[in-house]
Known about the structure:
mainly alpha, MetI-like fold, 2 domains, 13 helices
Amino acid sequence: xxxxxxxxxxxxxxxxxxxxxxxxxxxxxxxxxxxxxxxxxxxxxxxxxxxxxxxxxxxxxxxxxxxxxxxxxxxxxxxxxxxxxxxxxxxxxxxxxxxxxxxxxxxxxxxxxxxxxxxxxxxxxxxxxxxxxxxxxxxxxxxxxxxxxxxxxxxxxxxxxxxxxxxxxxxxxxxxxxxxxxxxxxxxxxxxxxxxxxxxxxxxxxxxxxxxxxxxxxxxxxxxxxxxxxxxxxxxxxxxxxxxxxxxxxxxxxxxxxxxxxxxxxxxxxxxxxxxxxxxxxxxxxxxxxxxxxxxxxxxxxxxxxxxxxxxxxx
Length: 315
């Protein structure tokens, strides 16, 4: 197990370095002159030269990359050209919205998908199974931003149960902040819950047909106990892998959902930085999102090994 963790850790570090190199090359080397991209082609040459000097663009690319990585290791993400403040401050403020939103969406998605998938498999080809399949088909077909718009129209505008957008801040109270995040979290969770429901159903059906399950039933173990003790733990192995892959979609989907609900999160900051051509902020946010996905996949690999003894024996 230790060998497996170390090998995955080395892979994580190598992947992070490769991703940071790719981001740096795409945003600072390949486009040509980053200063002209940020200020526009109509900017005066002295203004461009001042920005190049401010950002260190007059130095060789390798030196700039090492300075950027060194700053990241010390918590220095640079200075935003648009906001005139440290990117680390912007990220920490916005992460207080995006992280709870993503975690809440993950909890809702998992709480919906796992029971529905197991229930559909246990009642295959019955009305329950068909209803679950309809839900999963609709969830896959409808994008999360459209679900968010419908939620605003119905629950906020018509019924008035939830705010239509914005975030009052956690200082206004935990429940007030949670209420502001609930609709966007559900809108973000439903499409992924639909996918996870299908995967859970398929994995459960595969395990239900296994020999050890039939043996347990032949020994007199009742249906409910068989599902709890034998079917669900084994079905969770492939489901864990898909859940890990979905976590990256939660962070990516937050960009659209945060803009629909006007939430001051990391996704909205990325959208604003893209519109304002603030390459300093874009570069850091893309690396943060990429790093989160890579770390999550690392944790999923470890969790997969814990759930599946075959992987531990090979390590």
